[in-house]
Every structure is written in C-alpha cells, then in structure tokens.
Design brief:
The chain contains 10 helices and 15 strands. It is of the alpha/beta class and 331 residues long. Strand 9, helix 6 and strand 10 form a beta-alpha-beta unit. The model has no long low-confidence stretch (mean pLDDT 94).
Length: 331
C-alpha cells in the first residue's frame, strides 16, 4: 500500500523565500486535542500573514515546535479522520479558520479542530468556500462583538449609521452585507467606480471615493457616524477619527486606533479597539447557514494552483484584490 505524501508550501522566515516540497509526510492528528485530518481542497491567503512570525512569534510558534511556516489559514476540504466524540465525521465537507499558531493549509492534507470548523455550504464551490472563514468571521466579530450590534434588525439598537473603509476588500464586502442585514445605513469607502457599483449592490447607502474625497472632508459635510470599521490602517485610520461621533466606536483590524488619534482630537471620547479574529465554530456555522440560504455574496478575486503560489502571493501583495486570493491544493 502506498503511503500518501503531502505537497506542502513552506515559507522560510530567515531567507524570506518559499519552498514547495512535493513529498512531506501527512500530518498525524492527535484525537486528544480534537484534531481532524483534512484533505484540503482550497485555502485562501491573508494580506500580511507572512509578517506574522516576525511580529507575533510567541503566538505563531506556540503550537508549532518544528517552526515550519505553512501559509493559508482558511481551509475548505473533506474530513478524512475525526476524534470519536466529534460532531464531524469522515466524508463531511467543511470550512474552517485554523489557528496561526499551527501550520496552515497550503498543503494537500492539514489539521483542523472542531472549534475551528463548520459544515461547508453545499451551494458554494470549493473556491468560494475558502473565501469565507477568516474574512467573514472577522466581519461578524467586528459587528456583533466589538461594535455590540445586537443581531439582525434590532429595533432597540441606538446605532443607525456605520462607515466601512476598504469596503471592497475581503473583509469589507462581508461587513457591508452584514451591517445592511442588521438594519444599519452603511457608508462604504472605495477607490473606483467599479467598486462603487459593487458595494452599492451589496447594500451600501452611500459611497466615499478616497481618490476624490478624503474621509476628513466627507465628515465635514456628511458625518459623523456611530461606528467606523477601519480595514486599511495608516492615514485612513487617522482620518477615521474625524468620522466617528463623540461616544461612538472606532474598530480596526489593522492597528490600535489610539496610536492614530489626531492631536487636535485628543479630547474626543471614542471607544476604540484593535482586534484579531478568533476561531468560533458557532459563528462560522451561522455564516455558513446564511450562505446556504443565498443571503450572502461570496467574492473570489482569483484562483491559483499550489504550484503557482508565486503568482498568488504577487496578486495578494499588489493590493486592491476584490475578495480573496484562493489557492487550490487538491490535484
């Protein structure tokens, strides 16, 4: 009987170079930790993830004693083996966000745990499925945990209007849709007419083109809003302070907002938070159900074979991807 091998993409942090190995061993799941062996069909990339080992070494290597960086923390695939007590069984098609503290999913076989997974929406392709977990969970947690929106169409919610920067990006498209479903007026920041059309189709009530109008100028005429979701960082995050009302909320997935508070706004009282998405099987199942009902639009920028990883990362690093850059692991 032939022992299966595991084509695997490894990023070497010292040389900052990739190595594609054609025949590494298949990982051995540990049932005591809730490990499931997954036949990876597709994974998706996150901008900046190759910097995480340098920025957050204590996290990235905490469950990775070999120190091998395998990119791609979205996974869509099929369960090969499962712990006896798992609700997932061999043959189940799943999606998941695996923890960056372990090796990722740019490989043919990988490991995922129950708390990281949900059943794959049957109406999605494998490429669409891989575009869901990290981005959709980030948007969900930004909206319902950190902005404290109390579910969809809460008539008692004091929130009425939100601003989403980088709204046509992989997280932004989810935030626009979910915020609209929650009954909020969504202002979306984009950079061209094509993305203007896209975010309006997703539910945005107003659009700011950053190439013609700064957020600061927009705030002078049309602001402020109850919540700003910053998905861009830098000067955009600085300008976001002008857009949020006193006692409002400013949430960033890029950097701590307090570091970018303008000097002239130091007296402004704003709840401001930076957060990193956490795995949550229940939330991912809720998202999967909405996708299964056709209530959410998936966005895939491009799909690449594992052998063509250089093109995938070049596309990611170039910026302005509409949705996720997906890598197909299965041959």
């Amino acid at each position: 009987m032939n022992t299966p091998t595991n084509k695997t993409l490894i990023f070497d942090t010292k040389s900052q170079a990739f190595q594609l190995h054609s025949s590494l061993p298949v990982p051995i799941p540990n049932p005591a930790k809730g490990d499931h062996l997954i036949r990876v069909m597709t994974t998706a990339l996150c901008k900046g993830e190759l910097d995480w080992p340098t920025l957050f070494p204590d996290v990235i290597f905490s469950e990775n004693p070999e120190g091998l960086i395998v990119p791609g923390y979205d996974v869509a695939g099929t369960v090969i083996s499962a712990p006896p007590a798992s609700r997932f069984r061999p043959g189940d098609e799943i999606i998941g966000r695996t923890r960056p503290s372990r090796q990722g999913n740019c490989r043919e076989y990988s490991i995922a745990r129950s708390e990281e997974m949900a059943l794959k929406p049957p109406n999605l392709s494998w490429a669409e499925a891989a575009a869901v977990p990290v981005s959709a969970l980030t948007a969900w947690q930004a909206l319902f945990e950190h902005a404290e929106v109390q579910g969809f169409h809460d008539p008692k919610s004091p929130l009425t209007k939100v601003l989403v920067t980088a709204a046509a990006g992989s997280v932004g498209i989810w935030l626009v849709q979910l915020a609209k479903m929650a009954g909020l007026d969504v202002v979306a920041q984009v950079g061209n007419l094509e993305n203007d059309k896209l975010v309006r189709e997703l539910g945005a009530a107003d659009v700011v083109n950053y190439k013609t109008t700064s957020l600061k100028d927009w705030a002078d005429t049309s602001g402020p809003v109850d919540v700003v979701f910053d998905l861009q960082g830098g000067e955009t995050l600085e300008d976001a302070w002008y857009c949020v009302k006193d006692n409002g909320t400013l949430i960033s997935i890029v950097d701590a907002p307090g570091k970018w508070q303008p000097e002239q706004l130091k007296g402004k009282t704003v709840k401001n938070e930076f957060f990193i998405v956490a795995d949550n099987s229940h939330q991912l199942s809720e998202i999967s159900n909405l996708a299964s009902e056709g209530r959410l639009l998936m966005m895939v920028d491009s799909v690449w074979n594992l052998d063509d990883y250089e093109g995938a990362f070049a596309k990611l690093d170039a910026g302005h991807a509409r949705g996720k850059v997906v890598i197909k692991a299965a041959g």
